[in-house]
Each structure stands twice: as structure tokens, then as C-alpha cells.
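Researcher: We're teaching a course module on how sequence relates to structure. For the next exercise, students receive a sequence and then see the predicted structure as C-alpha cells, so they can try to spot secondary structure elements on their own. Here is the exercise chain.
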Amino acid sequence: SDPTTLDALRHQLGLDGCRILLGLGRLHPYKGWADLLRAFARLPASTQDAPLHLLMVGDGPLRKELETLSSQLGIAQRVHWAGWQSDPAPYYQLADVFACASVYETLGNVILEAWANRVLVVSTRAQGPLELMQDGVNGLLAPPSDATGLAEVLHTALTLDDTHKARLVEAGHHEVEEHYSEAAIVSAYGALYAGLTRSGVNTA
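Model: And here is the predicted structure for the students to work with:
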């Protein structure tokens, strides 16, 4: 999205001048949202001279419970609930860091989306993310079901210098372009199809 649209969205969400940690997905127990809230509560209230806020995009059965937890943790003022969004791209683009706190995650689609939108990814070592990510290469990995461990990795991510951060972001973006973009998938299928045709398999 263009900067004007992003600025308008940032303003609408009440996030002017803030750094943004993003959580995005269905508000379901597998996704480790309570761990993310607890980790966020352990982070400093501001990093690099800007207030740090948590933006939660998604909906699901746990929302009320998670809102209650954020009040109990004393962070309710800095947690924003945007609900389900049909186009998540601008939310990724606003974020300084995207956090996937899943305990169980098979595919890691959110990581591919985050990479496609050039945001730094911190994820727990759940199955899907582990197949996609290399720690310190295209993102940072944290222990699952461990709010303290997650907080430490998030703090590292939020305080990385620009060069280091850009390197991780570009590596993630490259990974998507290379292996998971529509073009890459189409060309992989093309090669597969050509291979099948050559080997005399009837593809009709």
C-alpha cells in the first residue's frame, strides 16, 4: 500500500508515532496468543525512543479471554484489536516486527505473507515455521510455549540495527519470490508437467 494509505490506517488505529508488534491470525488456543501477550508485557513500554504497541489482527473464540488477560497484565492501553481483515497486507506493512507464537502450526502461511510484505518475522519453533525459517538468516526463532524466551527474542528483533534487520527481511522476501510466489509455483508446475510429458505419463 502507498505511504498515504498506511499513514491513514496507522492514524485510524491510534498508532501514530508508535512502533508496532503485529500478531495476526485466528484467535485459537493453538496459536499461542496468551504467550504473545505475556511476552509483550515483559517488553519495555518503548523501544528506540518510540512507544511500543501490539496490534492484533484476527478474530476467534478466545478474543474475550485474551482481552481480559491483557487487562490483567496491565497492557490493555497498548494492545489494539483490529478484528478479522480480508486484506491483511497493509497491517503487515505497518508492523516493525511480526510475531508468530504458535504452539502448533502446520503450514506457516502467515510467515510467507509477512515475508511477501517485507516485515521482520519472529516465530516459535513450531513445525510449519521450522520448515520455512532459518534462525538469524530470514528471521528469528524462539522457544514455543515460553513467554520469557519469546520476549527475549522479540526484544532482540525490536532493537536490531537497520542493516541487520534489512538483511533478514530481504532474505525472507527472496525466499517467497524464489519458492512460493505465484510465478515460482506456476513454473514449478510447468517443469513437473513437462517432466511427466517427457516420461510418457498420460497427463490428459
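Model: If you want an answer key for the exercise: The longest helix spans residues 162-180. Residues 48 and 159 are 7 Å apart (CA to CA).
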